[in-house]
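quick one
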Amino acid sequence: MASNPTCDLLITHGTLVQVREDVTAPVKGADMASLPVLPGAYLSITQGRISDYGPMDRLPRNLRAQQTLSAKGRFVFPSFVDSHTHLVFDQYREDEFVMKIKGATYTEIAARGGGILSSARQVQKLSEDELLERTLPRAREIIRTGTGVVEIKSGYGLTTRDELKMLRVARRIGIETPLKVKTTFLGAHAVPPGMQKADYMNLLIREMIPAVAEEKLADYIDVFCEAGFFTPDETIQLAEAGKQYGLQPRLHANQLGRSGGVQAGVKTAALSVDHLEHLGDEEITLLKKSATMPTALPGAAFFLRLPQAPGRQIIDAGLPLAIASDFNPGSCPTGNMPLIIALACIQMKITPEEAINAATVNTAFSLQLSHEYGSIARGRVASLFITQPIPSVAYIPYAFGYNPVDTVILNGKVIPAG
Ligand code: NIG
Ligand code: FE
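structure w/ N-(iminomethyl)-L-glutamic acid:
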């Protein structure tokens, strides 16, 4: 006689959110308004993966579970996929925050040696282990607000030694915590003081990119394409150099002005162009002819009092939209994705369903992980969270500042609070 079926963890009586079998393309345009949910459902987990799910009346009677959790009155989400962060840094920069309140601009602070360069000076002083110790609490913090997958950039090293150190720390976050980590080399974040741009470009192309590739420390390459940082031509040159070493581009584009970053991204077939606070019809038309994911970072725009990326217009143009946190000490000192989703809804006028699609399937797609993360289907990695008892999905962005995440499950394991 066949033995009873078993699973490691069984969730019962919950409303499953973002149930999608087909994730071969991003969700775009009018389709972003639908968020597939399955109320009154069970979900079983075996060996870290979703083994089955369905309505409660189809729950196999003889299923034996090691552990069972009731999700009655609660929602079961796939973990948020945060596709843009600078999680590895030393200190926060609240001193600059106060300077800005008193009238200084981001560009002025950068010109006075603040901003990215001050974070770089701090990172350069720390050992790899010390930098890991500084970063781990932030990794634990984002786990508690529902993030299960995170992209982490370098860019506060600005020397070969320190950029490699940052990327090693980013990789170690994926080993020391249950987060799934993708890493991006952002040596082209700023030109180090005392160095000519052309010399730094040479260093990036001849030394840093090959060294990063040699140690397999990065999955992607990024460039801060903005006036005063890197031009579109330099961005294209760096992106192409990265591609020769297998690093596909994902770019910082159009944050402080219409920098030509979107054009550079489309031209180099970037996986995503991020920020987009300054976007015109020309950029939208170009994006429509490309596979590059427009990614808004509503927390950074809010914090810097910049215009929000035109998320509503992007979706209405039939494009996909992704949203991410940009967690960093200078322009978004939080990686709280429920809050980022709230900002997206409130300030870009996108619906809760659109924002949740933007922060799960679409970010997973831009990180080339949609077959494993960002949605619920059999075989996907069981990185999920169960919400507090809440009345609806819309309650999440509505109750901005509230953490709707109760139980966190990563790779099939319940993560104890604290
Ligand atoms: O994405 N724009 C460039 N990089 C970060 C800010 C970095 C910093 O100020 O430390 C951003 O906003
Ligand atoms: Fe950024």
